[in-house]
Design brief:
Low-confidence stretches of chain B: 1-5, 89-104, 692-746, 835-852, 856-871
Strand order of the largest sheet of chain A: 2-1-5-4-3
Largest interface: A-B, 91 and 94 residues
Mean pLDDT of chain A: 85
Helix content of chain B: 55-70%
Distance between the termini of chain A: 48 Å
Number of strands of chain B: 0
Mean pLDDT of chain B: 76
Largest sheet of chain B: none
Strand content of chain B: under 5%
Shape of chain B: elongated
Structural class of chain A: alpha+beta
Structural class of chain B: mainly alpha
Radius of gyration of chain A: 19 Å
Oligomer: heterodimer
Order of helices and strands of chain A: EEHHEEEHHHH
Distance between the termini of chain B: 42 Å
Helix content of chain A: 40-55%
Radius of gyration of chain B: 37 Å
Shape of chain A: globular
Number of helices of chain B: 38
């Protein structure tokens, strides 16, 4: 099961743009501490990978190796041992795209390949929804419509379940998300009209 | 801390948002005003440092939004998310009361009930209602099934037999009876579109029942439920069947009465008390197997490019592999719960492996196949050794940069290490270098895994090679980087280095490939050494290499602990010689060097404490080292080394401890220490003559004196022709340090203070060394009285210049004179029998040729520590 999903920056600021915990006990007074701990660990791992890559990338002669390395810099996984903040061990899987990092906190027996798959199609749906392929380079866009990010998460990872989504399920989810958001807007208009009529 | 002024929200901003929300609550506002307020509230929870708590009225207001059929989905989503985010603070009280009042009879209340994680006991009472609803409404089933995951995780006791059976009956329907047509898309108002049949990935019509690997143009509720049910299966089976079985086994094994999570439920306790193994419903089990088998067939279906455009094709080929992996995971669980299914699943697993082995695939499905094999190793007759060889000998070797695949494999190895050691020991003995590659490339991500894994890797055939590999881990990391970044064959710079590089990046263990376990230190090969040193110096160390340097001392500590606890005398002897040789053959980063050298010395002392006969095995190394050392000793590295050797010789050069020690060896030991002591004293004497009247160079003076002397030494350097190499080296060092520190800190005061510290450290080290020399000579002389006169001559030289020495040195010198003047008492003190020493050196490995790791070998002294330093 996915117990948490974080969307955050991966620089010194380490801003959390969105956090969602699917497990009740993770939404206690330590939730911020918990999310900051994860983000800081992701940042440290990424930063070291990036620095190592930067130091030697000028010497790269083999394009295939270069692509492999570039790919491996932007993704990672690590174990979070049992502690006062996490009563049970967890596994963190993260993926960086431009200025944003998408981080999943998983129970140790979750299918990690499915988690990686989810990150890919979630990012794709997010870009499509915001009609901006570079939403990851302008994270503040997410803050203009947090409720729509919320819908995206709720539909693609319902209650922390990783959905085994083929391209047709992804297409279906895309339609459903758009319809839900459109209906919401429509419903909202209806409510406004009803309110106006009452007055 | 955030540098962005907008984050976190200032306190005033948060307060303003909450005041506005309170107004919305009081006015019961609707529409955009409400949505805006909820959105701000959500952001304030996201970005405020101090999160305000919702009061009872506000929570009730939010719950009513969720339950109100007229609320928009946006309002419901925002409200439930805000309530969930704050649920930990409210402890559910208000939620409980509000929900109790509503009786939870309507659909909205029920969903709200599930959504807000009401406590398990209350939820348990609602289960019959949930079941009756999902049995008659597909839409609700689609909504309810995803909720089962968090409920399973937080309240597993809810699912007693009756409830389990009812849910499983529902799952069977979801898994095997989903529509074979897509949802009807309403077209124009005058024409209803006809249903489109579900297809396979190759575009053909669905061959059997619907699964996650079928394609539907528009998913019906039951098709989505099918997808969700498959997602839930693994955690359902594991939480409700395997975990209790595992717990019961553990309980029986450890005779523990308390269990977590399931403890409070009466029926569960009853079940546990009766020691009943929870059996999987036969029909459910059959249908799961049927479903998994179908997905395994579908996983190899060729994807039609007409049906899936290029981007979709990537997703689909990816999901084929993921579903294949998940199906194997589920089947493995089924076999653990119901061993009767093993034979059936084995043939399938074998087929999948045969199918996959020639294709270039990720490691994930192979890890799952291995997991199935190892879980059922006793029942499986098929030989999976070639698969193990192929994964650990080939695939893993080239995938060290793929952290996700490596992580899966490491987790698998760690969880199943005991079974793997018993059944496939070659993974660790032959292919352990692949694990070190993973560590060298991912030292930060996988350090925790390696701390656990290392003891499993060490065994009698490879322990020396592992020692070298550990010490050379930073070099391995550097070489991995270079091997990827540069085309070695074309690169002229690396041509001369290629032999070492090939050795460092070798695939198979040298000891297992018949090269012998001793022929594995490239530092011993002089022709490569200068190339190696040039290479290490000319390459900038990346953070990856630095991280390797940090983790090596920690891993070495574990390595030594394993050896100290389990190795035989012979192995300790071999290792001691290698440790001694590698002391100066290390990666040249100073902090790494210091830590590793310190550890090697500590452990050398420990080895001697447990096995004093090492004094004979190492006598040649000791003597040649002492003879090669000049008195110009660099205080950073060699003083500690010299002190340790001298102390060991003094302590253990005793024929009563080690009968193989001849008079000749003891005499050579004494002579070597005597020469060093003389050289030191001569330095002091010469320095006195050359600087008559001044309080010049000496050992162990107080800090300010010592510092002043260093300064004056520097000024009169040109005048003194008789200065020794030691003095020159010290002065050069101080000048260099001075320049370096002035450059670094600029401030003269700080620089002087640092220099003072260094000088003080130097003084202390030299005092320690001289005291150790006196003690060692005294001990040897007390056992062999022919050395007494020679020792007294040295000590009397110290007493003659008593003003030059620290009181500690003088105290020891006086003690030594008194003792040596009473040889009988000296012998009583220092000439002990072996039996009077520690008796804990009982290494005993029954089968020294065993390929099992140390941890698995029968060892009489297994529970007895090697020495009493650590345990």
């Amino acid at each position: 099961m996915v117990v948490g999903f974080l969307i955050h920056s991966l620089d010194e600021t380490q801003i959390t743009y969105f956090s969602y915990f699917f497990s009740a006990h993770l939404n206690d007074e330590h939730s911020i501490k918990r999310q900051n701990l994860i983000i800081s660990q992701v940042y440290q791992n990424y930063d070291k990978k990036l620095q190592s890559f930067n130091i030697l990338q000028t010497n790269i002669e083999n394009n295939y190796s270069k692509q492999l390395m570039e790919k491996s810099v932007g993704v990672g996984v690590f174990r979070v041992p049992e502690s006062s903040l996490f009563q049970k061990p967890k596994v963190v899987v993260w993926k960086k795209v431009l200025n944003l990092c998408y981080t999943l906190i998983l129970s140790p027996d979750e299918n990690r390949m499915a988690a990686q798959h989810f990150l890919k199609f979630f990012i794709q749906l997010l870009n499509e929804h915001f009609k901006n392929n570079t939403v990851s380079s302008k994270p503040k866009l997410l803050l203009t419509k947090p409720e729509e990010v919320l819908i995206l998460i709720e539909k693609t990872i319902p209650n922390g379940n990783l959905v085994y989504a083929n391209s047709f399920v992804v297409k279906n989810l895309r339609t459903e998300i758009e319809a839900t958001i459109l209906n919401k807007k429509k419903n909202l208009k209806d409510l406004e009209i009803k309110k106006a009529i009452k007055k | 801390m955030s540098k962005n002024p907008s984050f976190p929200f200032p306190e005033e901003k948060t307060q303003k948002i909450f005041s506005k929300f309170q107004l919305v609550v009081e006015n019961k506002s609707q529409g955009n005003e409400l949505v805006d307020s909820l959105r701000s509230l959500l952001l304030s929870y996201q970005f405020s440092k101090k999160k305000p708590r919702l009061n009872k009225e506000q929570k009730t207001f939010l719950i009513n939004i969720i339950k109100n059929p007229n609320s928009t989905s946006i309002m419901k989503s925002l409200s439930s998310h805000i309530l969930r985010t704050t649920s930990g603070y409210s402890k559910g009280n208000v939620l409980q009361i509000t929900l109790k009042k509503s009786n939870g009879e309507d659909l909205e209340s029920l969903i709200c009930f599930l959504d807000l994680w009401v406590d398990g006991k209350r939820l348990e009472k609602k289960i019959p209602q949930i079941l009756s609803w999902i049995s008659r409404d597909q839409l609700l089933t689609e909504q309810v099934i995803p909720f089962l995951s968090p409920i399973l995780s937080d309240h597993p006791f809810i699912f007693q037999k009756k409830t389990r059976d009812a849910f499983e009956k529902q799952f069977i329907a979801c898994l095997t009876r989903a529509s074979l047509n897509s949802a009807v898309i309403t077209g124009s108002f005058w024409r209803q579109a006809s249903p489109i049949p579900v297809t396979e990935f190759d575009g053909s019509k669905c061959l059997d029942f619907f699964t996650v690997l079928n394609c539907s143009q528009s998913y019906t509720n039951d098709q989505m439920t099918n997808v969700y049910t498959f997602s839930l299966l693994y955690s359902w089976l594991k939480t409700l069947y395997l975990d209790p079985i595992e717990k019961q086994k553990q309980k029986e094994k450890e005779k523990e009465e308390e269990e977590e999570g399931f403890g409070n439920n009466e029926e569960f306790q009853k079940e546990k008390g009766n020691k009943k193994i929870i059996k999987l419903n036969e029909r459910f089990c059959e249908d799961i197997i049927k479903y998994c088998l179908r997905t395994l067939d579908q996983a190899v279906t060729k994807i039609s490019t007409e049906q899936s455009p290029k981007e979709a094709e990537v997703i689909d080929s990816n999901i084929q592999e993921i579903v294949e992996m998940e199906s194997i995971r589920i089947l493995t669980l089924i076999c653990q719960i119901d061993p009767g299914q093993i034979q059936k699943v084995t043939s399938i697993t074998k087929k999948i492996y045969e199918r996959r082995k020639t294709q270039k695939h990720s490691l994930h499905p192979f890890v799952e196949i291995m997991n199935f094999v190892i879980m059922n190793i006793e029942q499986i007759k098929y030989d999976f050794q070639p698969m193990i060889e192929s994964i650990f000998g080939e695939k893993l070797f080239d995938l060290y940069y793929n952290s996700l695949e490596c992580f899966d494999l490491l987790e698998f190895v760690l969880i199943n290490r005991e079974l793997l050691l018993e059944n496939y020991p070659s993974i660790f003995s032959k292919h352990f270098l692949a694990f070190f590659r993973i560590l060298a490339w991912n030292p930060d991500e996988f350090s925790l895994e390696f701390l656990e894994l290392l003891p499993t890797l060490i065994h009698p055939e490879n322990y020396l090679e592992i020692f070298h590999t550990l010490l050379d881990l930073p070099i391995l990391s550097l070489c991995l980087e270079l091997s990827l970044y540069k085309d070695l064959e074309k690169n002229v710079d690396l041509a001369s280095f290629s032999e070492i590089l090939n050795y460092i990046l070798r695939k198979e263990s040298s000891s297992s490939s018949g090269k012998g376990k001793n022929n594995i230190n490239f530092w011993d090969q002089n022709e490569y050494l200068s190339v190696l040193q040039d290479f290490l110096e000319s390459n900038k160390h990346s953070p990856r290499v630095i991280s390797c340097c940090k983790i090596v001392p920690i891993l070495l500590q574990i390595y030594f602990d394993v050896l100290i606890s389990y190795a035989s005398i012979k192995e300790i002897q071999e290792l001691s010689i290698i440790m001694f040789n590698r002391y100066f053959q290390l990666f040249s980063k100073q902090s790494f060097l210091n830590q590793v050298q310190k550890l090697i010395l500590e452990k050398t002392m420990s080895f001697f404490a447990g096995n004093p006969s090492l004094i004979f095995d190492l006598n040649e190394q000791f003597i040649s080292t002492l003879q090669s050392l000049s008195p110009g000793i660099d205080y950073i590295g060699k003083i500690d080394f010299l002190i340790s050797i001298t102390w060991i010789i003094g302590e253990y050069a005793n024929k009563k401890i080690e009968s193989r020690l001849s008079n000749e060896i003891i005499s050579t030991f004494f002579g070597a220490i005597e020469v060093i002591a003389f050289e030191y004293l001569t330095i002091v004497e010469k320095s006195k003559k050359s600087k008559k009247g001044s309080t010049n160079y000496s050992m162990g003076l107080n800090e300010s004196q010592f510092h002043k002397q260093k300064q004056s030494q520097s000024q009169t350097q040109s005048q003194s022709q008789s200065q020794t190499k030691f003095q020159i080296e010290n002065e050069n060092k101080i000048n260099f340090e001075n320049q370096f520190l002035m450059k670094k800190f600029g401030n003269k005061f700080e620089t002087q203070s640092l220099l003072k510290q260094i000088s003080t450290e130097q003084g202390k080290n030299q005092t320690r060394l001289l005291i150790t020399l006196i003690l060692a000579l005294t001990k040897i002389a007390s056992r062999n009285h022919s050395f007494i006169q020679r020792t007294l001559v040295i000590i009397s030289k110290i007493m003659q210049h008593s003003e030059k020495y620290n009181f500690l040195i003088l105290e020891k010198a006086e003690e030594a004179i008194k003792l040596l003047n009473n040889p009988g008492i000296a012998s009583l003190l220092f000439d002990m029998e072996k039996s009077a020493r520690s008796q804990k050196n009982s290494y005993n490995i029954s089968d020294e040729k065993s390929s099992l790791p140390f941890l698995l070998l029968e060892n009489d002294s297994q529970n007895e520590s090697f020495h009493n330093f650590f345990f």
